Amino acid sequence: MIKTGQQHLDSIRDGRTVFLDGGAVDDVTIHPAYRNAAATVGRLYDFQAEPANVELMTFEVPGKPIRANRAWQLPRTYDDLVTRRRALTAWSELHCGFMGRSPDHVASCVAAMAMGRDLFEEHGKGRGQAIWDYYEYARDNDLYLAYVIIDPQADRSKPAGEQQDEFLTAAICDEDSQGITVKGAKMLGTSAVFANEVLVASLRPVREGDAKYAFTAAVPIGAKGVKLLSRKSYEAAASSRFDYPLASVFDENDAIVYFDEVKIPWERVFVHRNPAMSQAQFHATPAHSYQNYQAQIRLAVKLRYLVGLAHRICETIGTVDFPQVRDALGLLAAKAGMIEAAVHAMEVKGGAYGPYFVPDRSLLYAAGALAQRLYLEVVETIRELAGGGLIMLPSSARDFASPEVAALIGKTQLSANTDAHGRVKLFKLAWDSIGSEFASRHAQYEMFYSGAKHFTIANAYRTYDWKGATALVDGLMAQYDLPDTAGTRAAP
């Protein structure tokens, strides 16, 4: 049976501990700070369960009479990879790319770790089987996974082991024949409020002397001792869907996850006190590139939405045929097209990782490094195109309920192609896309979801074909030299 939205919502009523505004939240599926975003997640699962979408969104699990979401699929051919991408695109279109940690993101990470199970086994007996068994469990139950792979900022000039509190960053504080016990915090638990389980790992290199921080494990969000410290809810602050059409339903939330001496059984531990494998699990397997491949698919959808929004704004204010405006729109289209082209190119240029077919890392990291700056450029261009229309809007939807105010809105919110209601509706959407607190969080998110700028650029440098590039230079230089003693030059 394919997982539905109601099944997912029922599954996260598990007694989880979520702190918000000084208190604990009893049920995230009905609390005003989370219920609409929870319902959005539910709609993702309902979409995959619709008979018309089953073939698009799911695949037959090998050797089992069940189907699972294609996010869990391990492609063996180029066609498999493209088919999987179409499913991820369809899900992203449901939220226009605004849910960056939708269920297909960490599923991509764990699926790629499972591709590298032999490497896990090399670094720790039994760890390869553990990651494979967990992959199958998560796949067969279509779990929504979040992850926390970044240390709390604290003092970035010091490693985890030199912070004021040795258990500021989540670390192994005890272990026995049953498993490990973990204490400390990790961030950014994006969507953890709505997920079934959280993957705990370290993307930041861990020093050899700090092995207790070098672990990777999967933990149910509702497990004893797991505590989520939620940031402010933009959904709770959204007065209506009309006024905040995105924040009111797509606020996936972010949280610091604190592990208060959480016991994790060995079958859920994939890396154990191993700094080298803590890094290798991401970069010697396709895990890091595969999860960012999903992110580029999502970003391509989000940019397509933003370009469409820009065009609608210009149509509404009557500037769409201005030459300079068309130039700006054309450049926006080119930037969106570049990311989409990169997604297709990394598939075409993809290659084998064992029996699996994965996207090309060099093109992936090139796109990721450029995207961090590109997103901000797109937002800035839309601001320039929209001008003061983003600011001079009615205070809220309630203004339309007052005949006197509504009449004034009708006189002042004129448009080239719609009525006052249509204009205000569009510009409210535009503000929530690029100007509101929700939008500001998204600008920060797109800048850092794949890592700090120096990290993404380093990945692009590390994976580029420098040998091939410099060979062109050397080959050309080999065609000529100083003039010979007779005064003639080398033949061109």
Protein architecture, described:
- The structure is a single chain.
- The chain is 48% helix and 13% strand.
- By secondary structure, it is an alpha+beta fold.
- It folds into 2 domains: 5-283, Butyryl-CoA Dehydrogenase, subunit A, domain 2, CATH 2.40.110; 287-473, Butyryl-CoA Dehydrogenase, subunit A, domain 3 (Up-down Bundle).
- Strands 2-1-10-11-7-6 form a 6-stranded mixed sheet, with no helix packed on it.
- The longest helix has 30 residues, at 287-316.
- The radius of gyration is 25 Å and the shape is globular.
- The N and C termini lie far apart (69 Å).
- The model has no long low-confidence stretch (mean pLDDT 94).
Concise synopsis of the structure shown:
This protein is an alpha+beta fold and 492 residues long.
Keywords:
alpha+beta, Butyryl-CoA Dehydrogenase, subunit A, domain 2, Butyryl-CoA Dehydrogenase, subunit A, domain 3, six-stranded mixed beta sheet, four-stranded mixed beta sheet
